[in-house]
From TrEMBL:
Binding site for Fe cation: 67, 69, 111, 113
Gene3D superfamilies: Jelly Rolls
Organism from which the protein derives: Zygosaccharomyces bailii (strain CLIB 213 / ATCC 58445 / CBS 680 / BCRC 21525 / NBRC 1098 / NCYC 1416 / NRRL Y-2227)
Name of this protein: ZYBA0S04-03730g1_1
Keyword Metal-binding included in the entry's annotation: yes
Length: 314
């Protein structure tokens, strides 16, 4: 989609200042997977409503085999390669480059995420974001929403700036709606030349961060490099800056700040210790949403080849 209208974002929006920044360090996670964790690390334990952000790199046999979730949503964005998923509700499929998956764990789910064995021997790379669920939705039924690349509008702001509008509104272009229970704005900025300026507005009650996948970004005369996560103060209505290198790519993400306690134990997220103990019991005894937790096992644990993708995908 080309952006040809003369509509511009407000020139008078108050710009948010940088609260904290750091380079995400690579670590091993799952079974042989390599991730760069920013949110969910010692540097930034939580950034409500966000619980975790991983920049993952996978190649079989590495992956994230059968594991549970409760009380949160995950957003998986595949940048390179392909990743297969399957869960105990019977849902399964494959995310291709540019595809996303919004998974709501709700009261309970067990699923598996395994990279497709590519014929060229390449890796699968992407981002996974964990988002807290509002307390009223903690026990909702699990659901999936796959968002294919061609379902995501892309606005060409100028010859050197494109934005994939995954969730929200950017430069006059709206995304699909009702992707997640917690309101999220999610944008992928792609710049060509060094010095390309950008501006993105956010609601005042949103926490906002930026993560750089390629190149570098300049904000308030400070340059931030690849794999840097930048967190903003809640003191404005927009984020503005410029690319500091050619061919820079980054995501700019905001989410509504939830007014609730966060009690987290790995992939289980609740609002009190008492509720968390109940979740442990549900999972241990296979009840209240976890009835299939101990009898089900994924078929993709053995791996998925690129040749099998057409039959596996649905």
């Amino acid at each position: 989609m080309n952006y040809t209208k003369n509509t511009k974002m407000s020139k008078y929006a108050a710009l948010r200042s940088v609260m904290k920044h750091f380079v995400a360090i690579e670590q091993e996670e799952g079974v042989g997977a390599h991730v760069r964790r920013s949110i969910g690390s010692m540097n930034m334990r939580r950034f409500p409503p966000f619980l975790m952000l991983d920049d993952f790199t996978l190649k079989p046999p590495a992956g994230f085999p059968d594991h549970p979730h409760h009380g949160q949503e995950t957003i998986t964005y595949t940048l390179e390669g392909m990743i297969a998923h399957e869960d105990f509700t019977g849902s399964k499929g494959v995310l291709h480059p540019g595809d996303l998956q919004f998974m709501t764990a709700g009261r309970g789910i067990v699923h598996s995420e395994i990279p497709v064995a590519l014929e060229n021997g390449g890796y699968t790379n992407g981002l996974q974001l964990w988002v807290d669920l509002p307390s009223k939705s903690k026990d909702c039924e699990p659901r999936y929403r796959n968002l294919r690349r061609d379902e995501t509008p892309e606005v060409k702001v100028n010859n050197d700036l494109k934005v994939r509008v995954i969730s929200g509104k950017s430069y006059g272009v709206n995304s699909l709606t009702e992707l997640a229970y917690t309101p999220i704005n999610f944008y992928h900025f792609i710049t060509g030349k060094k010095g390309t300026e950008f501006l993105q507005e956010f609601p005042e009650n949103f926490n906002v961060f930026l993560y750089i996948m390629k190149g570098s970004v300049i904000l308030n005369d400070e340059v931030f490099s690849k794999h840097c996560a930048i967190f903003f103060n809640n003191d404005g209505t927009a984020v503005s800056g410029a690319s500091a290198a050619d061919n820079t790519e980054f995501v700019l993400v905001g989410g509504e700040i939830l007014d609730q306690e966060v009690v987290q134990h790995g992939p289980f997220v609740e609002t009190s210790r008492e509720r968390m103990m109940a979740v442990f019991k549900n999972y241990q005894y296979g009840m209240n949403g976890f009835e299939k937790a101990h009898s089900w096992s994924s078929t993709i644990a053995r791996g998925v080849s690129e040749k099998e993708v057409k039959d596996f995908d649905n």
